[in-house]
Predict the structure.
Amino acid sequence: MMNIDNSYLYLTCGGYPKDNETWVFFTSVGEVEIKNANSLITRLLPLCNGNKQKREIIKRMEHYLEEGTDLDAFIADLFDMGILSDKFSVYKAWKSYGENPMIFFEEISSQQACRLIKKELPRDETIEKIKTNTPDFYMKGILNKRCSTREFAQEGVLKIEDIAGLFWSAYGVQEEREKIWRYGKEKTYTVPSGGGLYPLVLYLIELKDTQELTRGVYRWNGQALSFEKLKKQGCLDNLESMVTGIDSLEKATGIIVVAADYGRSAVKYSNKAYPLILLEAGHAMQNAYLYCAEKNIGFVELSGFEQKDLSDTLKLNKKLDPVVLGVFGVKKED
Ligand SMILES: Cc1cc2nc3c(=O)[nH]c(=O)nc-3n(C[C@H](O)[C@H](O)[C@H](O)COP(=O)(O)O)c2cc1C
């Protein structure tokens, strides 16, 4: 049983009293029914708002407990079932709702998708319309070229300089800037990060053998500007079966895996760590897209992949979770 004594209890999923005896909760692994604890649950849940520690909640509940009720053990069970969490690890629950395979996935037809895309977003009442012209600026040409590529050229493979540029753009340490903190200077990156905590780690899956990089998995070191080959190498042969949105990886040069240490952000941001990590991975990906637009490299961001299978197969660090992938290669000319 995990030690949750100092936890700030937080309800991580919805639920309702089905009848006088049973509560039903919708956890990320399915519905859970709890019997004969309705009045206990009804009193406990409003207290589990992330602001109160377990011991305070137990104290407040003391008067209501029936003889022989072990609230400590009951709370531990709710933790185990994924109904309660600590506010600093609530990201684990939310992450499990968003992981693949998606538990609430709806397959919609491309006709439905097109209808949805055409549908207007919610409108606001406005009083005036001011027309603008976008000025010419250096990035404009690159922003206009940004696109996703899912097919790559038959011939050719990207050189290490191109790949290094891609990784540096996505998550590199800036060359000149540094941030002055009260306790010293810290490095800064090509992307912003909540609290400057930089919780992302990028891996390169090199799919081809080149002079400098052989097929395998490397960890990107954004400070040393180096790719460091993992000691334990996983199997790269079945990656296609774990990835959706791209039919073949045969012609791709490689894949960026953006992985995260959610806990690092959670130390400061608790429940906000989950959206922060997704935002930060998005910043890295957008930089990668822009680099590829400038260099005419094919690139596509993919969130549809089996996180656990991929992580296990590649033997990625167990303390880091893959968030999003970017497949890249030599662009196929139209
Ligand atoms: C967060 C995110 C996740 C994405 N995941 C996938 C994916 O799993 N599979 C896929 O084929 N494309 C994926 N894409 C790419 C989008 O399909 C693509 O950006 C969109 O169709 C618009 O095309 P464009 O990038 O060429 O403008 C993703 C894009 C974003 C921003």
In short: Residues 304 and 312 are 16 Å apart (CA to CA). The chain has a mean pLDDT of 94. The chain has two domains: 8-98, 140-330. The first helix runs from residue 38 to 44.
